[in-house]
Amino acid sequence: MTTTISKEEIHQAVAKVRHPEIDRTLVELGMIKDIAVEDDKVILSMGLPFLGIPIRDYLVHSVEEVVTKLGVEIEVKLTEMNKEERDAFMAMAQEGWIG
User: d(Cα 22, Cα 36) in Å, to the nearest integer?
Assistant: First the structure.
């Protein structure tokens, strides 16, 4: 079965995923970098402030879950944010910290 899905549909689904410790979505935090759709597979790049953060697997699973509900396979590629991206992330994190 081939499912035709657009990058916009994927973006809308992923835009609902909230960070568990910061009152913002992953999109708002600048963590969703790139979305590519190849046949019936989505390849999504997610930037993390640091690759070794403890909730890395939780974040990946959260993104995978919303995309697979759309009926497509997903591969999440992790990258580390550059200094500018990390500074913006940390500023938003301080404003929206739930803990």
Answer: 26
Report yes or no on 99 lying in a domain. Answer: no
Domain that holds residue 35: 7-93
pLDDT tens digits for 48-87?
999 999 999 999 999 999 999 999 999 999 999 999 999 9
Model confidence, pTM: 0.88
Residue 73 lies inside a defined structural domain of this protein? yes
Burial per residue of 67-99, b for 16 or more beta-carbon CB atoms within 10 angstroms, e otherwise: beeeebebeeeeeebeeebbeebeebbeeeeee
63 is written with which tokens? 């993104």
